[in-house]
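step 4 of 6: structure.
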Amino acid sequence: MEKFKKIKSNAIPLPMVNIDTDMIIPKQFLKTIKRTGLGKSLFYELRYDENDKKISNFVLNQDQYKDSQILITGKNFGCGSSREHAPWSIADYGIKCIVASSYADIFYNNCFKNGILPIILPEDQVQQLLQAAEESLNFEVDLENQKISYILNNEAKSLKFDIDPAKKACLIEGIDDIGLTLNKVSHISDFENKQKSMNPWLYSRKLT
Amino acid sequence: MSNPKTLYDKIWNDHVVTNNDDGTSVIYIDRHLVHEVTSPQAFEGLKIAGRSVRQPQFTLATADHNIPTTDRDKGIADPESKLQVETLEKNCADHGITYLSMNDNRQGIVHIIGPEQGFTQPGMTIVCGDSHTSTHGAFGALAWGIGTSEVEHVLATQTLIQTKAKNMRIDIQGDLPIGVTAKDIVLKIIQTIGTAGGTGYVIEYTGNVIKALSMEGRMTVCNMSIEAGARAGLISPDEKTAEYIKGRPLAPSDDYYEKAVQYWMSLASDKDAQYDKTISINAKDIIPQVTWGTSPEDVVSIDGSVPNPHDENDTEKKKSMIRALEYMGLEPNTQMKDIKVDKVFIGSCTNGRIEDLRAVSKIANGKKVAGHVNAIIVPGSGLVKEQAEKEGLDKIFIESGFEWRDPGCSMCLAMNADKLQPQERCASTSNRNFEGRQGRGGRTHLMSPAMAAAAAINGKLSDCRDF
C-alpha cells in the first residue's frame, strides 16, 4: 500500500447524512473483478443523469472541486453494504481523506486497507469545515501531526483530530496487514492445535 | 470466580490467537463464506503475493448475488456477471474450496445455505464479504461482514485483526400481538435506536419474545443488526438451536455431538454480565411495520401515515426527510394503507426461508395478485425451493399470480435482471430501502412476508391482520 503523505488540496463539501455504500458506488459496478477503474462511477446516481450526462450542480461536477483529495460530509457515512468497492471508487477517484462526525464500522475499517484517512470530528467542527470548503480552496491534512489547516472568513485556522495510533502507523508506513499476521503463524498453529483438542467437532467434517 | 461474561465476551475470549501491543487482537475465524462479488480481488491478491488458502475446508463458496432467477439452463447472459461467477468457480477449484454452483440444488444465498448445511454453529466466529453475515448470530455464532481486503486476510491466515466491540443488550419482553413477526420486531428496533444506534457494538437480543421465535425468525432479527449499525447480532443458543443443527450435513458427528451441545449451552451470558448499553422494548407496542423513506430507520406502523417534515425540529433530519419524500414520491400525512404498489418482492437473506414462504401462502391461498402488480417470489436456496414445492406452496403462489423463481439475492440488490424501473414502487421483504437499491429511481417499502403478500393481493400497502 502507498504511504500516506501530507495532502494539500481543495475539499469537496457534501453535506448529506447517512450516505450509504449503494450511493457511493451502485450495484451495476460491482461486477468487476478488479480493484481499479471505479473512480469514474463514484456517486454515480448523484453525478450522472439517466443518459449518463453529468449533472452540473452536483459538487463533483463543479470546476472548483476538480482534483480534490478531501471529502467533507455528513454523519454515518458509508453505512449499508460491506462492499469494498466503495473505498476503491473513492481512492480511484483520487480522494485520500474523508472528514465526518461518524462512519459505519465496516466502511471505516475498509478505508485503512486502501490508504484512505477517515477523520472523525465533532459535528460543529465538520460544519465549520463544510463552510470553509465552500469559501476557500486551501486545505491541508497533516496525519503525522493530526492536524487539518484551512481558511475560513479569510482567516487561517487549524483543527487537531484523534486517531488510533495503530491505524495511523498503518497509513503512514503503508503496511500490509497480511504480511504482519503471517509473521505470527506459529501462534495461529498453536491456537488450531489447542482448539482441535478442546472442540474437535470443528475439525471433523467437510462438505463435498 | 471470574468476572461474569456476556455471550460475546465468551466467544471473543475463545478465539483470541494473540493480543497485540496496540490493543488489537488476532482473532481466529472458524468459518468463512465466500461469494462472487466480493472475492475476486481477494484471490487475485493472494496470487500476486504467492500466498495460499490456509484452511480451505473451513471455507464454503457459492454464487448468489449475480445470477439469474429464471432460465438457468441458458446460463448467465450478462458477460460481466458470467465472468465474475466463472472466476469464483476457478478460484475455488485452484484452492480446494467447496463451491456450490448455480446448478447444485444446495445453492442459494450464502446466509441461507450456511445454516442449512450445518456450516453455521454456536460459538463459532463466522465472516463473509457481505454485511448481512450478522444473520448467523441467530445461532449464537459471532458473525460479521467484512471487506474484500479482510476476505484476503482470512483466506491467507484464517484470522482477522480486530478491536473488541462494546456489548449492547436489546431486551424484548411481553406478548407479541397476533400477526406480528420477527421482521416487525427488527424494524421496530431499528426505528428505536436508529441506523447508527448500534455502531461500535455487538447486540445481544434477549427476552421471552426472542426466545419464542423460531430459528428462522431469529435469523431475520440478527440479519438486520447491520441496518441498526451493529456489525453483529447474537442470540443465546438453546435447545431449539441444537435441534435445528442436528442431522444437517456439517453438524458435529455423533462422536462429538454431545460434547458440542454441552459447549454451546455453556455460552449463554452469565447472570450478572454487564452490558455497556441496554434497550428494552415492550412487545405489545409492536404492530406490523413498514418503511416510508430511504433509510431502514424510516419506519411507521401500517395504521400510521407518512410523517410530515414540518413537524421535525432537527434541521438536518428535516432536510433528509424532504429529500426522502421527494425520492419516494410521497405526500406528508398520506395514510400508509393508501399507498399503491407496482411490484412485490418476496425473498432475500432476511426473509427467503421456508417459514417466510409459508406465511405468504397463508395470505395468498385462494386469492389473486392485484391486476396492476407484478409479484415475484425468490426462494433463498434450492433446498427452500424443494421444500416449498414438497408442501405444494408453489402451486398456491402460481395460482394466485405470483412468479415462482430460482434462488438468489435477486431484487434485494438488483445486480441481476430483477430490478425496479424508475418511480416503480415495491413492497419488499428485503433489508434496505436506500435510494436506487432495487434499481435506479425505484421506491422500496420494507415489510414482513405476510405484509408483502397482503400488498400484492390488495395492490396497495395493507395490514396482513385483515386477511
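step 5 of 6: annotate
 - The beta strands of chain A are 7-9, 11-14, 70-73, 97-100, 117-120, 139-142, 147-152, 155-160.
 - Residues 6-174 of chain A form a domain with the Aconitase; domain 4 fold (CATH 3.20.19.10).
step 6 of 6: archive
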